Amino acid sequence: MAKTKKTTLKDRLKQHLIKYDKIKKIEKTANKIQEAAKAKKHIQNHNKIQLYSTQDKILLIGEGNFSFAKSLAEKLGTGKNILATCLDSEKDLFTKYEDCQDIISRFKELGGTVMFSIDCAKLLKTKAIKNQKFTKIVFNFPHAGAGIADKDRNVRINQELLLSFFNEASGLLTNDNTPKKITKKKKNLQKNIKKRSKQYEESDSEVETEVKSSENPGLLDFDENGDDLGYEDSKPQTNQINTNVDGEIHVTLKSGEPYDSWNIRSIAKKSGKIAIKTTVKFDVAEYPGYEHRRTLGFKTGLSVGENSEVVNKSPKTFVFVRKESLRS
């Protein structure tokens, strides 16, 4: 009869540790799969964001052949809420982009407005624009077009361009001045706050209660966790232009060099006026008929068609808002 090998405490502990390690590896793998699934779902939802609507008042900066303006107007079903501009004069534009005349004509048919010789660094000094407010100011693929071979100098010039644009555009954004109305929940909360404040005043407690009020005396917007305390927005639910919103600046850039070296987030921070809100993948397929054009125009042998230059660079749109709107 064969003898049964006696299992020692050390052996049992070793087996237990082996099983424990296997379980931990399985759990770690499962967590990675779960996190990847969540990230994928977040990206999918994020990319479904509709950046523009007929309620927006849109200013397009630095249009090339105006194909984005036309595509956006067709997408919205109207161009009446779009002002599209370019730096070139009308004569220079038609020379650089042979296809733009028909494109502009179609854009105007949809109700769009076109302005030539508009410098993004002098928007607040431009008579036709300086007194207007926009919910969306869009600058797709900005580039100084200086043609400088030195990489560092090229980066600096484009950073200066972005900084000047941010300083000007931030002054043209709309503010959310929508009146709020207080709800029953809000009224009860306000009574409780007053009651507790009175109790604190009558006691010898060293605790100080700070009640922050909104523009409407005696009302609170959010609690200390940022949760809504009972306001109801009275924003219009129609397709009419609504300027009672916090406006946004959209800048679309290609990924990779030299664009990554522009450090657009840092430039926005340097302006002291705006802050990053989010980033969204720029999907060319969302804008049928849009054809990216370089600042120097379309040059046979140098420029490429079918947006391959853009698509291959994984472009994304940086969404900026006034710093004050993030704190409100």
TrEMBL record:
Residue ranges of every copy of the 25S rRNA (uridine-N(3))-methyltransferase BMT5-like domain listed in the record: 59-294
Stretches with biased composition (Acidic residues): 221-231
InterPro entries referenced in this protein's UniProt entry, alphabetically: BMT5-like
GO molecular function, one term: rRNA (uridine-N3-)-methyltransferase activity
Record bears the keyword Transferase: yes
Source domain of life: Eukaryota
One GO cellular component term noted in the UniProt record for this chain: cytoplasm
Lineage, broadest ranks: Eukaryota, Fungi, Fungi incertae sedis, Zoopagomycota, Kickxellomycotina
One record GO biological process: rRNA base methylation
Keywords for this protein: Methyltransferase, Transferase
Protein's name in the database: 25S rRNA-methyltransferase
Extent of Basic residues compositional bias: 181-197
Region entry Disordered, spans: 177-241
